[in-house]
Structures are given as structure tokens and as C-alpha cells.
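lol so apparently i was supposed to do this last week
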Amino acid sequence: MCGIYGFIGDGTVEDLVNGLKKLEYRGYDSAGIAFAKNGSLIIEKHTGKVDQLREFLSSNLEKRIHAGIAHTRWATHGVPNDLNAHPQSDCTHKIAVVHNGIIENFSTLRSQLQAEGHKFVSQTDTEVVAHLVEKYFNGDLLEAVRRAVEDLNGTYAIGVLHSDVKNEIIFARRKSPLVVASDGKRSFCASDVTPLISSVRDVMFLEDGQLARLTAGDFEIFESTSKNVDKKFHHIDWNEKDAEKGGFKHFMLKEIYEEPRVISDALTGRTYGGRIAFDELSEWKDYLKNLNKLNVVACGTSYHAGLIFKYFFENLRPFNIEVEVSSEYRYRNVFVDDKTLTIAISQSGETADTLESIRLVKSLGGKVLAISNVVGSTLTREADKTLYINAGPEISVASTKAYIGQMMVLYLLALHIDSIMDGKHPEIVKSLNKLPEIMDNFITSSNSKIKKVANKYVGYANFMYVGRGINFPSALEGALKLKEISYTNAVGYQAGELKHGPIALLDEKFPVMAVAVSDELKEKMISNILETKARNAHVVAILTEGDSDVSSVVNDSIHLPKLPHYLYPFLVGSAFQLFAYHVADGRNLSIDMPRNLAKSVTVE
Ligand code: M6R
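anyway here it is w/ 5-amino-5-deoxy-1-O-phosphono-D-mannitol bound
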């Protein structure tokens, strides 16, 4: 939540805005920048998105600057308005601060600072940081920031610029991500790597408690004790083009079209004949063989991928698998022993509740395996081992290709653990390898058909998504996708649960999205569909092509090719994503940046 970007070295105001634009998916309530010109601090900040800021700055975009910091906000303290936008400043108007996170003791600090004579102008928690730096500054900006952050409770990634300190900018981190890099002429810091990859590929992720001093040609990292820290670089091989729309109307649609490639990349180097090989897990052979429990923790879409993993694994062998939303798991009195493996799934690798869950597991002596998309993210650094999904940057707030990639890596993981425990399923491995082509054909041939169906339902205010077995989590995920980008009430249920309450909602204005593919639960699904039809609900079914048992009883159909049952969640996932996309597009909504949301949820 919130994007921070800054650089020092020769550049322009537009460079600052362009860097910020790439972080906009992290929050878009307001945007602002700060830089120094002729010894004065210039701050420009406005409610709204980065493009609005760009418009305000249009006559100044080419202005040359030596250093600047920028921020795109997801509001926590104070409504989104110009005053609460970052950067925040101090009484002397020489210090600019951008911040991501929550300062939990801001109210106490604010009262203390007010008593000392500091004047506050915003409702933000961030403004206390600017005044604290002012209080401690005596010519050494690093030292002032170090002392300021000592006073803070809570979480932060902050960037600080002082108009009297020309040759450095300072950043500090506790629990909110920051990455630093330098190309030898300019040094950069950002909330994630997306604004950096056009200039540099080797980056360093700050650890909790560290501070970074950036100068034009280099950067230094310090512990909170001021001790200098050795640099540890991660190489990022994301393609810069992946972070551009490439002719698509929205990132979301582009990212759905990338799903076949994502599946294929997730498979690359991990299957040999009918076997799975994860080099990353080679040291864990004995540990995996003796496991007797799997815990899965995740949030949102990643949680749904975790649920599908449970169904898939249980199909291979009966096993004790618990899948829990991280924001609940972390507060439970959980059981973990040396035969338990905790799998933490997070696209961003920065989701606060998932990080706290794994910290809990580790404090109990348990092992953690991360499934993530972001190289070097906090999750991957704190977990014992990581399997990357290699989906490339996912820009749209709605997770699409990462979900499909997570599922594939989780399927491979299930097969890997099962094979270590003596299972053999070469036919499944073979069919997974065929999936990229199947997905490609499906997405390209079905997009316009799904759009036609979606157009019929653009005006409805409520939707019920239902499925059974491995397609029940698909119903949850379909409903989540629709609500987050189209602001439509959509609920996901196990189809068998309808009659225990939710069916009371249904009438001709409350359509049902039913996953009724040709698998062993199809007949049961048909019964549930008929029950909803008897309440006058319109039913859109996702079914297997040629299946007239289902198509004859529903109003609209989305057809999938005939597949082994365990492959359906991939195609159902894409079908529901496309349906949600076209409903939201039919309403002309801000699909890639839906209201109230942010891509990376770094607050608890
Ligand atoms: O980065 P993570 O996978 O940990 O994010 C978890 C959720 O915040 C995320 O999946 C969210 O639900 C998406 N916006 C759904 O599209």
C-alpha cells in the first residue's frame, strides 16, 4: 500500500513522475513529489492519480533536478485530499517525507511535538516523521532520520529529502518494503522493482531496521546502530515490456492473455518425463517424506489458490491439509511440529498478515515454504525456501496471471511431495505440460463469446457463484474478481450449501454463475442448478462443450474443452476473470485500479 520512489543524480521532474506511475497500482488516492531548487523545497501534491499530477506539472516536467522523492497514496490516516497527500513537510519547509505504513504512536508523538511548538497541517501519521527529522537535524540527515525512526512504533518505509542537503537522500524501512539500486550515475529507491528495471537489474532489498543513504553515484546501507552493512544484490530478470500494456485496453486483459505463457514458465525446468524436480527443495527430501501435516496461509486470491491445492493434493492421497486466511491464522493458537510444513502463498511477497503468519510459524520452530512472484520480496527472504511462480510483473490490482501461476506451482509441489512419499502420476504431469496450449486456444477463442454473455449481465446488482469440489474455490475466486473490479455484490458458495440459507436471496434479479463441468459431481450440480431455476434465477453455467445435460437447463453457457477434471480450475479461473473484466468494462470502470484497493497490502 502506497508507492514510494526517489532518485538522486541528474534527471527531470518527468523522470520522477514516470517512476511513480509504475507504482501507482500500490495506491492511487493522491500523488505527489518533492525536489529542491535553488535551495528551496518544492512540493507538488494532489488528490487523484499520477496522471492528474502529471497534468498539474505539465509546464515543469522538463525541469532538471538533482534529487527527488515521490509518493502515490492509499489513505490510512486522513481522507484523500491535497493536504493529506505526501510528501509531508516540517515547520521550516525544508524537509519532505514520503511514507508507506502506519505509525501507531503518531498521536502521542504529535501531542509531544505540538507541545514543543511544532505546527501540524495534515491529519496524517506521516507528518510526525517530518517534524521529528526537523527536531533532530543538526546538519547530518542520516543521523536525524535514524533518531526519528527510533521514536516510531508501527511500520514504515520512508524517504526523506532536505533542501539544505544537496548530495543525499535517505530512506528507512521497518516492515514496509524498499529496494535500492544504483547505475553509477544515479541511485534509486522504490517500494518495488518495477520503476527500477529500465535502469538497473541488480538491486538490494532493505531489511527491517536498515537505512539507506543514496548519493548520485552509489548508496550505503546502515543498521539502526549506524553500522555500515555489506551490500547483497538480487538480480531481476523481469522484462520491461511486461510492465507495459502492449496494445491491450487494460493490464488486466493483457495479463489474462499472458496466462498460457505463465503456465509454461512455471513448468520450465520442473518436469522431466513424468516426474517433477524442484532443485530448490533438494535438501528437503527426507523432511518432505516424513511430513504429516501441511498448513497453507494466504490472503484473497492467493488463499483461493491454496484451497485448490488442498483439493488437488487430497485427490492424490489423503493428507492432513489446513488452508487458512493469514489474518485469522496469525492470531490462532496453532499446532506446528517438525513434521509440519507451512506453505505461504503471496504474489507480492509483502502482504502484512501473511508475513506475520510465517513469523508465528517460525517462532514455533516450524519450516516455511514461500510461493511468490516477486524475487527478493520480504516473504522470500524470511521463508526457509521459495518456489517462484515466474509470472512477471502483475500490474492490475486484480490478480489473474499470478493466480494461474500459483495454481500450477502448487500442483507441481503436490505431485513432488506425493512422489517423494512414493506416489506416481506420470499421466497428470503429461497433461499439465499440455495446458499452455489448451489455455491459449481457450482464451483466444472464448474472449469474445464471454464478452457477449457478460454484456447481458452488466446491469445486474447481485451474483451468486457456486461450484463443488475442486471447483468450489473457483466460485469464491470468480465472486472476488467480480466484486473487486465491478463493485457488484457477488458471493461464492459451495453449491450444496445453497439450500442452507443463501437460496433465499435468489429471484429473477439475482443470477447464478455455476461451474458444472463434466466431472463426477456434475449430476449434483445439475440438481443445484434446477433448484435455483425453480426460484426464477438466471443461470450462467461453465460447462464442458457438447454437454447438453447442462446446457439444456441453463440460460447461458461458457464452454470449456473436455479435460481431466483437475485441469478445469485453470480454465474456469480464466473464464471468470474474463467475465468480471467484461462486466466492469461494460460499466466503464477503472479496471486496473479499482476504488479503495491497492495491489500490495502491507498494512494489517
Ligand atoms: O500479494 P498477495 O498474493 O499476498 O495478495 C493477496 C491479496 O491481497 C490479493 O490476492 C487480492 O485479493 C487481489 N486483489 C485479488 O485480485
